[in-house]
Specification:
By secondary structure, the chain is an alpha+beta fold. It has 12 helices and 30 strands.
Length: 484
């Protein structure tokens, strides 16, 4: 009998670990920076104020629109005031996945509510078009004022999750943003109208776009930076420029929701590595998602380069700060979506805006409950999960402390994964365990009492209840041979 028992006191790899810090005072609001926090709805209040202030037009770009308060305000404009409302959004269900949305947005029946609100606004007179690649977030009124923000028009983004936004301060940038919206709205949108089949059912009409990418070259020298498709990547180039030209005796601070797809943006890794080798310090703040293996993998890459990484449970704010420059944007540090494809927006900050965003991110880091660590102890990891569950209000599913895994014959990789990495179970609404996630892999399973039979490898699982398997003892059974 070939037997081996998992006696490792740590989990291999990088993870977000609870720091057990006492939080400082609440964040103090700044005039030149709007934020969202549970006790500070600055972005939402600013959006509502702009809607009330509009006299001729409202141009809103948002990946998703599902917040009832903003929907009501827009409906009021359509029914009571002679103001043109233009909305540029996303209507492709295949793109509305949790890789684009925060987990809070993903569980609020966002897609149906989004379609419902968009459809009703269209019927009530709003001009609505959608681009498959749209992930930008900004609002323009009367072509004279604009707010660029990280927040989607969802209740979590406007009421709870850390978000940031600024007014476009200079006239040239404002003109660029207005023109960019108009060009993409007119020529870069695949979905342009609805056809109503009944009171409760409607269809979205699609078309082939006739966008000429050369039209966007006019914005090359603007403080408005953007990603459009695969051709225009000056948002990404601005991030690289800020890092490459940063003071080597100073610090780069980055805020993002997630860090994924770094293999597709090697220039970013080269810039970070070079800056640190010159003596610079890089701090990164993001959401501490121990349940997302792609996020952990890429944070580990940055950590091994020397980046200091901190996290919380809710961040969705994005930006980058050097000693003398600041840049706010709607993309994540994501080499799969946003930095090198899609439609994203960024804005080079004025001095006061830069200082205020820097203060906000530093405040987040100082109060961050998580710090990213390599090879943490299992006890620290389990303590982190307990903090996560209590903060999120999760009623943790009771699972056995000792588990026997029955695994397919001759799969040394799977056996290694079970021994070295945290194991998460994915359940349906009836609490039936249907799959597990260990390391970078997902497997369909059958679970009975304290036994889990692994069936086959599957794709990443979305929108399921997920719980950490806090095992004190793991037994691995290969071909009915219990190994300890």
């Amino acid at each position: 009998m070939n037997s081996s028992k998992n006696k490792e006191p740590y989990f291999e790899g990088g993870y977000f670990i609870y720091r057990n810090l006492v939080k400082e005072n609440n964040y103090s609001n700044q005039i030149d920076l709007m934020v969202t926090l549970p006790y500070n709805h600055g972005i939402k209040n600013t959006i509502i104020s702009l809607i009330h202030k509009a006299k001729k037009s409202i141009k809103l770009c948002s990946f998703i629109l599902s917040d009832p308060e903003i929907y009501t305000e827009l409906n009021s404009v359509l029914s009571e005031r002679k103001i043109a409302v233009f909305i540029l959004t996303q209507l492709d269900n295949s793109k509305l996945s949790t890789s684009f949305l925060s987990e809070e947005e993903a569980v609020e029946n966002f897609y149906q509510k989004h379609l419902d609100y968009i459809g009703k606004l269209y019927i009530n007179g709003a001009h609505i078009r959608a681009a498959k690649s749209a992930h930008s977030k900004f609002i323009i009124i009367d072509d004279t004022e604009a707010l660029v923000m990280s927040a989607n028009i969802t209740t979590p983004s406007l009421n709870e999750n850390p978000e940031s936004g600024v007014f476009v301060a200079d006239k040239d940038s404002l003109h660029s943003l207005v023109s960019l919206f108009d060009i993409i709205y007119q020529y870069g949108t695949e979905y342009t109208k609805f056809k109503v089949a009944s009171k409760d059912k409607q269809f979205v009409v699609s078309r082939i776009t006739n966008m000429q990418t050369d039209w966007l070259k006019q914005f090359a020298n603007s403080n408005i930076k953007f990603t459009w498709g695969n051709e225009h990547r000056n948002l990404y180039l601005e991030i690289l420029n800020l890092i490459n030209n940063g003071d080597p005796n100073g610090k780069i601070i980055i805020s993002t929701y997630s860090v994924v797809g770094l293999d597709n943006i090697p220039e970013f890794l080269i810039a970070i590595k070079s800056y640190i080798e010159k003596g610079g310090v890089v701090d990164l703040f993001c959401r501490g998602m121990n349940y997302r293996s792609d996020h952990l993998k890429n944070c580990t890459i940055l950590s091994q380069l020397g980046v200091r990484i901190y996290g919380d449970l809710f961040n969705h704010s994005k930006g980058i700060i050097s000693n003398d420059k600041g840049f706010i944007f709607t993309a994540n540090i994501d080499g799969n979506h946003g930095l090198i494809n899609g439609f994203e927006i960024g804005y080079c900050l004025e001095d006061d805006q830069k200082i205020n965003l820097e203060n906000f991110i530093n405040w987040q880091i100082e109060n961050a409950p998580y710090e990213f660590k390599i090879n943490p102890s299992k006890n620290d990891f389990f303590e982190t999960y307990q903090f996560y569950s209590e903060t999120k209000g999760i009623n943790v599913m009771e699972l056995p402390k000792c588990i026997t895994f029955n695994i397919p014959n001759g799969d040394p990789k799977l056996k290694n994964e079970l021994n070295l990495y945290p194991i998460y179970v994915h359940c349906n609404s009836s609490k039936l365990v249907q799959s597990i996630n260990v390391g970078n892999s997902y497997y369909s399973v059958n679970m009975f009492e304290d036994k889990i039979e692994i069936l086959e490898k599957v794709n990443r699982v979305f929108n399921s209840e997920t719980y950490l398997l806090q095992c004190e003892d793991i037994t691995i059974n290969v071909n009915q041979n219990i190994t300890k």
